[in-house]
Amino acid sequence: xxxxxxxxxxxxxxxxxxxxxxxxxxxxxxxxxxxxxxxxxxxxxxxxxxxxxxxxxxxxxxxxxxxxxxxxxxxxxxxxxxxxxxxxxxxxxxxxxxxxxxxxxxxxxxxxxxxxxxxxxxxxxxxxxxxxxxxxxxxxxxxxxxxxxxxxxxxxxxxxxxxxxxxxxxxxxxxxxxxxxxxxxxxxxxxxxxxxxxxxxxxxxxxxxxxxxxxxxxxxxxxxxxxxxxxxxxxxxxxxxxxxxxxxxxxxxxxxxxxxxxxxxxxxxxxxxxxxxxxxxxxxxxxxxxxxxxxxxxxxxxxxxxxxxxxxxxxxxxxxxxxxxxxxxxxxxxxxxxxxxxxxxxxxxxxxxxxxxxxxxxxxxxxxxxxxxxxxxxxxxxxxxxxxxxxxxxxxxxxxxxxxxxxxxxxxxxxxxxxxxxxxxxxxxxxxxxxxxxxxxxxxxxxxxxxxxxxxxxxxxxxxxxxxxxxxxxxxxxxxxxxxxxxxxxxxxxxxxxxxxxxxxxxxxxxxxxxxxxxxxxxxxxxxxxxxx
Length: 533
Description:
Layout: H1 15-61, H2 66-69, H3 74-94, H4 98-121, H5 127-146, H6 151-185, H7 189-204, H8 206-216, H9 219-223, E1 228-233, H10 237-249, E2 257-263, H11 265-277, E3 284-289, H12 302-307, H13 310-318, H14 338-341, H15 346-349, E4 355-359, E5 363-365, E6 382-384, H16 404-409, E7 421-425, H17 426-432, H18 434-444, H19 456-462, E8 467-469, E9 475-476, H20 486-491, E10 494-496, H21 513-517, H22 525-529
Parallel strand pairs: 1-2, 1-4, 2-3, 6-8, 9-10
Antiparallel strand pairs: 4-7, 5-10, 6-7
Protein name: Hexosyltransferase
Subcellular location: Golgi apparatus membrane
EC number: 2.4.1.-
């Protein structure tokens, strides 16, 4: 074979240069590893220090000493024995073995005395001084095991005990709910007395009737839309008086405030007498009874139609209809009260008015409310404070979303809002036929499958997409059933005692009662005669 010439031969590879290159790479890698390890050591030192500080704080908070963490600690052994013995005492008593329970309790006290003495002198227990106590407790614990007070038995008995306690708690809770509901629904004797005395005063004092007739000559005032019109629907004279009085005292222009009160036939004379006897800084007050509204009949109002239904009457008044497991609060007749549902007929009640502020009778007004009448509702009908800061107040908590009609029309996560302080644009209400929407949903709920109780669920349906959110400070809720942030109360324009614990009842929340009682004149002769205090 012919060999290539020298010029055409492949060059010989330089192995030495490759070795040098790999050596340099190795040195660089080792240098980086060294630098990184130094940094991690520096960083780990404060981390370890912080962890040590945290452990020290935990030990200090739990009152744990180094001696107790020692594997050979006598103190820890005694503590463990005491914990186990306490559990055996419970089981022994359950088994009616009182003698053994007494022996265990006596030994527990002995061991606790030893630990207490050691803690007082600030020195750990020695094996010598605790040997007897540990041995005696060990014998009792062994005896407990011989009596089948083992872990499995303890677990089974404790489970049975927990189940029995849960059943007992459920029974007590149900009774408490029933008694609380009864207490909330009962009319206090003092309120009943006030109603009777005022009715007597009305029919026996012609001057009161004459005075009220003089006020009725101000018909133009009742229809003047440049004034501030408020409405309250209630059969509670004193509560309504607090609403009117608190509004008057905190109003910048009380002479521009007009209160439209609607009550029932029973309380009509008493309500007229009270507001004829008392004056409220020039505030105009007019009293009506819903029985005088000619348009309010069963052919037009679904609620009145339901009241005539025997099954509905049985459900709400006797509590015997439907599902026997339905809670008592769902069977309250007040949910079919016309005064409760009259809020859905405000345009019919006040045909000449364009805007009103609706107030419940369990509120207290703390600021001037005239600014509510200038709020732009952006074409909506209802101005209300939203209550969906928590998931509890979303639509799905009030409505039955297993029903296809609810599921197809309403967002389950839509924000709920509250009745009690609402601004209603009656012009938009009439234009959108909101009362007709309310009638539609009431008729669909004859069998109570869309919602169970109250006026809020039908309100959420009726004003869906027609509600303008207001600043939360306008309406602060919860003073009748829960603790409320003091800062919210301080800023609140209207405080709402919603819930069973109304401030005029004995079951009212004591810390919030002064907010309401501030507007009650307990020196009034009629209140003193009826033992209000």
